[in-house]
Design a protein that fits this description.
This protein has 448 residues and is an alpha/beta fold. The protein is 32% helix and 27% strand. The strands form 9 sheets. The protein has a 6-stranded mixed β-sheet with strand order 5-2-1-9-21-20, with helices on one face. The chain has a 4-stranded parallel β-sheet with strand order 13-12-11-17. Strands 6-7-8 form a 3-stranded antiparallel β-sheet.
Length: 448
């Protein structure tokens, strides 16, 4: 039998590892909880009705239909037996492996306050995107039926917690929806009166970018109509809003639509690996790996992507932490695949070296910030040309010609018309409005 390679997770890292082994004399099994690969950098576009799900997601089986050494399984790996070299599924099934690549990704972190999740969904999966889109659109629908001014104001106040790239993108797009997409479609409310707040605990947004670009992003958000609250720490979230603490003291924000973009935690599979191998986890639950991405004492197990607390080892440089971004996951996937082939040839493995191409973040229509590393030095710019660069960079890295074409058409249409075509949601949304408001609205409706 040929060596069996098991890849857990088909995100950017797992996908890249499997592709890098296309010509290897191995049999590959990919296991994922979903049947699709998701282009997460554009997931916020699904959450804000700019794109439909098929534009940024592709069935895993379709992606590997021509790679004959790949078998795809739908399932969830919950434990690993390192000595017996088996993976344990949630339903109790087991799968043997000779080489294991764990690319299980990350999930939301509410910093020990998991009860907040019911009131402030995060954005990691298509289900999350559908739920956020439903809450945003249903808030406008409920406000149209609401008579009480205070309740209507709470329905039309949208709060995004977290000033990283996801939070900035969501807040800017929420403001665009209220000011450009929905006006003229309602009779009892003016969507332009909606308030969008971005709450960030640190002194600036986009902490990973230079201070000048962070300030540019803040100004662009303000120009779009977003109220940016910096140095604001969230102390409580419930069905009616949230509590924050700032230098001025405690404050209550009434909102029926709160979105969480503030924290990331590693997949629970990291804890299972620690139990099985004794490996070390960092404070975020990520697995501390060796320079070649393997686990200490278990060279046949490699951990990549958001689950790995990896460092880049470049000759002549101090090791540097690898950021949790898609280029890092892709490069780790290629490195893990190459090291498997080196082991099969009896050669020594190589340390992972990360190439940082820079950071991009879009803020809204014609607004973005770009921080690139080039041979000539850092290249930093913002505004319209940064937005164009962000757009074409993301379209280029989408999987499949159809996806690129569909996204370009949708974005071109949205740019010229301000329309968002993916605004269909399931459910009638009646629970978003009070029975009294529903009765009053019915009473005012003309007969016939």
């Amino acid at each position: 039998m040929r060596p069996q390679v098991l890849i857990v997770g088909c995100g950017f890292g797992g996908l890249e590892a499997a592709r890098a082994l296309r010509s290897a004399d191995v049999d590959i099994t990919i296991v994922d909880k979903t049947n699709h690969h998701l282009f997460q950098p554009l997931l916020y576009q699904v959450a804000t009705a700019g794109l439909s799900a098929p534009s940024i997601a592709a069935p895993v089986r379709h992606l590997f239909r021509r790679q004959r050494n790949v078998t795809t399984l739908l399932g969830e790996v919950v434990a690993v037996n390192a000595q017996a070299q088996t993976a344990v599924f949630k339903d109790g099934a087991r799968l043997l492996w000779d080489h294991l690549i764990v690319a299980a990704g990350a999930t939301h972190s509410y910093f020990g306050r998991d009860e907040w999740a019911a009131h402030a969904p995060g954005l990691k999966t298509l289900d999350d995107a559908f739920e956020i889109r439903r809450r945003v659109l249903m808030a406008f629908e409920a406000a149209e039926r609401e008579d009480d001014p205070a309740r209507r104001a709470a329905l039309l106040q949208f709060v995004v917690i977290g000033g990283g790239p996801t939070g900035v993108e969501l807040a800017g797009t929420f403001a665009e929806i209220a000011r450009h997409t929905l006006p003229g479609e309602f009779r009892r409310i003016d969507p332009r009166q909606a308030k969008v707040l971005l709450v960030e605990g640190s002194p600036r947004v986009l902490q990973s970018m230079p201070e000048a670009l962070s300030e540019s992003a803040r100004k662009q958000l303000t120009a779009l109509g977003v109220e940016v609250r910096l140095g604001a720490r969230v102390t409580g979230i419930d069905a009616d809003g949230l509590d924050i603490t700032t230098a001025a003291g405690a404050e209550r924000l009434q909102s029926r639509c709160v979105v969480w973009a503030a924290g990331v935690a590693a997949s629970p599979l990291g804890l299972a690996l620690a139990d099985a191998t004794g490996c070390t986890l960092d404070r975020a639950g990520r697995v501390v790996v060796e320079p070649d991405l393997s686990l200490k004492g278990f060279p046949a197990i490699q951990v990549i992507g958001d689950l790995a607390a990896a460092q880049s080892h470049k000759p002549g440089h101090e090791p540097r932490p690898v950021p949790g971004v898609s280029p890092g996951a892709k490069q780790m996937g290629r490195c893990a695949a190459a090291n498997i082939q080196r082991r099969l040839r009896g050669e020594a493995t190589q340390a992972f070296r990360y190439t940082d191409y820079g950071n991009l973040a879009t803020i809204g229509r014609n607004s973005a910030v770009v921080d690139l590393d080039t041979p000539a030095g850092p290249l930093r710019f913002s505004g319209y040309f940064a937005w164009l660069f962000w757009l074409f960079a993301h379209v280029w890295f989408l999987i499949g010609f159809r996806n690129r074409f569909v996204v370009l058409v949708d974005w071109a249409w949205a740019y010229w018309t301000h329309d968002r075509n993916a605004r269909v949601v399931a459910g009638d949304g009646l629970s978003e409005a009070s029975p009294a408001s529903a009765a009053a609205a019915s009473a005012r409706r003309p007969a016939g």
